[in-house]
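To whoever is on call:

I kicked off a structure prediction for a single chain this morning and the downstream step that reads the tokens threw a length-mismatch warning. I double-checked the sequence; it's 902 residues and nothing unusual in it as far as I can see. Pasting both halves so you can look.
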Amino acid sequence: MDLCGPILDVVTRVWDCTAKHARYIMDLQENMESLRNAMEELKNVHGDVKRRVEREEQRQMRRTNEVDGWLHTVLAMEIQVNQILEEGDQEIQNKCHGTCCPKNCRSSYKLGKKASKKLGAVTELKNKGRFDVVADSLPQAPVDERPMKKTVGLDLMYEDVCRCIQDEQLGIIGLYGMGGAGKTTLMTKVNNEFIKASKDFEIAIWVVVSRLANLGKVQEVILNKLDIPNDRWRNRTEDEKAVEIFNVLKAKRFVLLLDDVWDQIDLQMVGVPSPNSQNKSKVILTTRSLDVCRRMEAQRSIKVECLTEEEAINLFKKKVGQTTLNSHPEIPQLAEIAAKECKGLPLALVTIGRAMAGKNTPQEWERAIQVLKTYPSKFSGMGDHVFPILKFSYDNLPIDTMKACFLYLAIFPEDHEIFSFELIFRWIGEGFLEECDSMDEVFNQGHDIIEHLKTACLFQSGNHYEKVKMHDVIRDMALWLATAYIGNNNKVVVEENDIVEAYQVSKWKEAQTISLRTERLEEFTVPWNFPNLLTLIFYGGNLKTFPSGFFHIMPIIKVLDLSGTRITELPIGIGKLVTLEYLNLSKTRIRKLSMELKTLKRIRVLLLDNMFHLEMVSKEVISNLSMMKVFFLIFNESLEEEKTSQSSTKEEEPKNSREDSQALNVWKNNEALLEELEGLEHINWVCFQIEGASSLQKLLSSQKLKNVMRIISLRNLDGMTFLQLPRMKHLQGLEMRRCGELQEIKVQEKERGQGFVGDNYITNSNFWCLRFVGIVELPKLLDLTWLIYVPNLENLSVKDCESMEEVIGDANGVPENLGIFSRLRDLNLEDLPNLRSISRRALPFPSLTELLVRRCPNLRKLPLDSNSARNSLKTIDVEQDWWEGLQWEDDTIRLTFTPYLR
């Protein structure tokens, strides 16, 4: 028995092994079917997983490595299984005829064993195909390319921005300009074409900020570009989120592009590291306000200007399309006319261009152009798209006073430029500015508003740096705001017609503001009635008379502007306008101011400048205007020739106009007028033309008159060879003309020296406010050395002074760092035959923009060196032959200034 057990065990094991191996042969067909079915199941699972992966990849996700490996393994497994199945089918077909036994047991055995093992592998692989996640989010691309069409007219600004990005010293760059000028398009071009191709940055983040900036939303946009885990972001405070952003960005070279910024964004509170030359990162922002660039501490602010005329026409025609342009031979020229109405503003060009696409007849184009000129808000896309976009700039103005001041400029004609001080006077008359004891404070208010409107790109600088204007499309938007948008269709009237007919006037009874440019007002058969009128402006034109009774019913009018009209006498009934506070008669042809003006006791501003025909002012007219603060009676030097031409064609003068004993002569020894001005309690701002030595003595003897003078013109000082200028602390402009005997000008001796005591030179100057000096036809004057005591001089014009040899003569004792002409912008020297020197030493001229020298043959050297006017100069206007004969310290200096020649 002891021997039987082991033997039986061996026999059992042998039988089991033999039986198992026999199964590989006997069950071959069954195993093949099982393998085939398992493979089909695996393929079904593979198809399901693959579809899930493709769906996720369409959502910009990436398949996991595990899933990708599994999918490839299944494909390889399918190849192997197909091979086994093919061999198995052949083996099954090769059985012995009439039996179920294979011809080759060894081959069947091996194949059966292989099929059994593969069946297990297929089953295991199928079980592994149960994935919870098949794809992960893709890592963000360093730069997201943004949608953009082909640009027009941005190439130069694009190159400028790219240079700024490459400058390591510039961390923050601002792009500013009026709404619709193309700021976002420019930044998109920079993003797509420069930053995307650059190897200098690891990541670029674009954030649309918009008007209602929200710190949290800015952080969320930045988060979408950074790899910050949810558990370190969700339910965190803004400060904690800022720390997370900072810790990621501080290790990267980044570009943050902030679009449509309306107010300062504290980058530190967002978590953005300050861009500098060490981390070589950048922040680029777009805004409508230069002030935002400043508050964002931009090291460079680039104004995105409107397109040139040629660029504008090209963009406009591109939007209209060649099919429309080719539909009639007149349409291309009409398209240019329509494009010019947009004044280069891309937003308007694109909107109007698209609206005109498909307009294939000249008649349609002519009607459209007429609408653009007269009622632009009614043109398709303007009132419902362009103007609302531009209106955001208006809405963002901080106070209602500023909004009123902005809208006011729109009542003047297109392209009209106005001096800042003239506009402020009008605002004073309208009552927009706060009442102050000092007119200087009121003017500061006005200048602050103008500067804010300029930085907000709602006002523009004019051709003269003291002038402002409004872009035509901004003006159209302002008129839309003042009328249609707020329902004041009849309250603001702006018309330009040769003849204003009675039926038109009858519609103006509700008007509060009327601005007209016309040649004639038609007679009216019923009484003129303007019960609500506050402001009436007749701007220029050839209007000569007013209908009878025109001014009789204007019970609350405050502002009347007749400047530039051709009226020769005060309109009948003007004395009834007792509520009037602002009266402008400048550039009219009135010869006499009659007694009727005495009743206008509320007048605060009276402007009589450039009234070339005015000769007499009735006695006590000026002295009765007890509330008057501002008074102008002066000729503009640049209009002197106009005076001569007008006097040769003017109508016959009325008899006895020169002999009226009840009137004061305006231009001959006008000290009586000065006396009346001196008696006014509130007078604060006077621009006056002094005629004759006796009038000058009256001025010099009155401290009050010296204090209120802002601009004076000294003329015909017969017999005076020497003039000592007194302290006039508010004087802004001084002109001297036709003073034939005057040889020398000095300042008061007792105050001369105090200007040279260290840093007190500026504050102690007798002429702290003096900015404009004009010297014309002083044939015996030798120099203008006294100008070293004028620290804020901006404009100096010297003409027709035959004896003048030096502008600044002997300045011994004057410190080198005095800063002579440090704020001078324009220097004009004409017809000075004996002038040899402007200054005996080179001057830095840090503010000089324009130098004009004409007919000064003996001036052989300019006070310039290689550092003069380095960042300010724009033009040098001289005769070419004279320039070529100048002497220079070295040729480098000549080459430095030659490019500025005009």
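Update from on-call: the warning came from a stale cache, not from the record. Cleared it. Sanity check on the structure: Residues 10-19, 638-658, 749-763 have pLDDT under 50 and may be disordered.
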